[in-house]
Design brief:
Layout lengths: L14 H29 L2 E8 L10 H21 L4 E8 L4 H6 L5
Parallel strand pairs: 1-2
Helix pairs in contact: 1-2
Length: about 110
């Protein structure tokens, strides 16, 4: 996976970069799970654990493209968990958060 960071005001958003972000964060997960799902469905048990970002959980200024792509990632987890539940397959996500504590409470960094 290639990391694409698109942090800019919405009026300066580059449509080409906006199209790359979902491809980078969502499509590769979809592809990989599509390869694994038939095998674990056949065994009728298993777990899929995705390491995600918590960015969509907290609105941050100038991060709309990033947060939108990662929100799609979170929606993928929910959708897959519903689809694979009848096969006794759990789908979960661990949202990582690498932000300063004051950014979580106030939405603004002290620097």
């Amino acid at each position: 996976m290639i990391a694409i960071h698109v942090f800019a005001p919405v009026e300066q958003a580059d449509p080409a970069k906006m199209r790359v972000a979902p491809e980078t964060w969502v499509a590769w997960r979809f592809h990989m799970i599509g390869k694994v799902a038939p095998h674990i469905q056949a065994t009728r048990s298993g777990e899929i654990l995705m390491i995600m970002s918590a960015a969509p959980l907290r609105s941050l200024s100038n991060h709309s493209t990033y947060a939108t792509a990662l929100a799609a990632d979170n929606a993928l987890v929910k959708s897959l968990s519903q689809k694979l539940a009848p096969f006794n397959i759990q789908v979960n996500a661990i949202p990582q958060l690498h932000l300063k504590p004051d950014l979580l409470t106030t939405g603004a960094s002290s620097q």
